[in-house]
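Run log, item B.
One chain of 762 residues. Sequence copied directly from the ordering sheet:
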Amino acid sequence: MVLATVLGFPRIGKQRELKTALERYWKGKIGESDLRNAAADLRAEHWRQQKAAGLDVVPTGDFSFYDQMLDMTALLGAIPPRYGWTGEGVDLATFFAMARGAQREGVDVQAMEMTKWFDTNYHYIVPEFAHDQKFKISSTKPVDEFLEARRLGFNARPVLIGPITYLLLGKKEGGGNLALLDTILPAYAEILQKLEQAGAAWIQLDEPALVLDLDAAARAAYAKAYAYLRQATKAKLFVATYFGALGDNLDAALALPVDALHLDLVRAPQQLDSALDRAPTSLTLSLGVVDGRNVWRNDLGASLRLLETAAARIGKDRVWVSASCSLLHAPYDLDLETTLDPEIKNWLAFAQQKLGEITTLTRGLNEGRGAIADALDASDAAVKSRANSPRIHNPAVAARLIEQPLASAGRKSPFATRSALQKKRLGLPLFPTTTIGSFPQTAEVRKHRADFKNGKVTPEAYDAFLKAETQKVIRFQEDIGLDVLVHGEFERSDMVEYFGEQFSGFAFTQNGWVQSYGSRCVKPPIIYGDVARPRPITVSWSRFAQSLTEKPVKGMLTGPVTILQWSFVRDDQPRSVTAHQIALALQDEVLDLEKAGIRIIQIDEPAFREGLPLRRAEWQAYLTWAAQAFRLASTGLKDDTQIQTHMCYAEFNDIIAAIASLDADVILIETSRSQRKLLEIFTAFKYPNEIGPGVYDIHSPRVPSEEEMIALLEKASTRIAPAQLWVNPDCGLKTREWPETKASLEKMVAAARRMRERHAGK
């Protein structure tokens, strides 16, 4: 009998109930018991949805108040000393301090580093390990949630991050994380034993690191770890891999002494044959045939053929049907979308619908194709509808791709020539100050936007409100002494959605939210067809803001790679082609901004590193077309127009040469949480252009001191010439409150002035 299951489910709730509860708790509007009750209600509802859809087993432990890696850090007691943890159970105050930092009477502590989860836009909190790191079980969360599901009548399987992935994704001074394996394994064994004692028949251990480039030592660590854990418990062990092919790690994965292994057959369908040939007869294969990371409706016929091949070769009793990865990365329920065009909606499936696809495929495999004939027919019709729809292809866009190939991208003159002209035109001081773009989106701003969308506010009244907010933020920036200003982006709900709404080839949802980190949710647009810019998008707002001040106001755009990465992208053509189309659409906007008199244009690429393939052998191809797409967006500009870009929350050191190849005049980069790693690279790599190492963490509510910012700038100035350095926060300020924003920026400007005094004449 083939079984249906998933690796995880969206935790935010149908209407982002988790976000609401978390933010009310952080603001002191509800207590801990209210927060925990809200979480329990969400978990119960999500399990009910999965069971009602027909899943045979539901995962537990996939729920988190912030991030599953941070949950493991709390579970293992790997709490950095600065949080003052006493060694008992990890309370919520400590948990959230690690995630967000904390600043209250007697407490002022920075958050742990945050970075992207593999090549997704989901963020995790990076574990910090000492040389003599000790691990101690300090949470009952996995057992509690498993028992909670059992009490409610669900057939449950606990989920943990596996030990090798956890260690490899952490950071340890001097590296050598796997040296901690002998120390961490007893703690993992204790967790498994507690789950077994609680009645868990199966335990899922997520090991997505198995799809990365691993050396012999890492593969040996996998063998050692799972041999140890196999001896520790009689519960059956299920190792889940996802986000790519096992490749040269396939034999190592198949040799693990576990009972089931998950394969991502959406990203890597080619690995199925090898896995079927070489899998031990005792091993069950969980086959991820439904896309957990995108929104396109499954081609049930094609998926069923893969599953039938597997069942014929190893038997139905050794096959599970699943999504490619956790459904955490998919929106909750397509049925909530009441305004989507019916034709486009028929091409889509969200998490709730993907449960139905999994159970439909399971039934077809168990009972035969005839049992799901109607579903197969409907799937075939949707696939044909999408392939043949005239909405998909635009001949004018295709012609322009030929006229301006990616390889033609680039500015007219080298940076040294441009820089001299820009300095003359802009007249900025040493250590110029700026922000990344957005300013706080207050409740008033959000209410006016909602009222406008709901027809409660006229376009004229909404426009007047936005102009008033823009004027206030320009005056604020002038008053505190910023050198390069922004217009605040009050007209934008999201940095990708805003542009997609005005490009052709994009569709939008009402409730297609996915979690990015903590309470932060994003609503990615859907790229279903060829992309073009029918009319100017940002020009009028940039022109208006510049008219209010003599100081330069940046034109603010989102870059082609970030628009690509933070959208649900069409899967019927290479991603590079879609990026090429977006770059040309942005080029039109960039040239119009220059014509409008905008002297600095920022093209943000925070997702540039995120798009990097997981295997190094595939890096160069991606980096080539991604950098070309960025350069194409600014091709045709005059030399004295400055291009800035912004990147954040990723490991940049290994692609710094590619970042330099973007040839942005100024790059504003996150360094506040990971300053040491990000600044060390500049000792070996002489970055040619100008750079703003973010001097404070906007994802934390704490206000940094001038001394903190000066210390980071001084560290940067030992590696980068002061004439190259800018001073800025590490990201946009949209999610922050005004009081902390004002206090932080005032300190930042003061820090820049002190740096000018120190370095004047050097």
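Observations after the first pass:
- The chain has 27 helices and 23 strands.
- The radius of gyration is 26 Å.
Flagged for discussion on Thursday.
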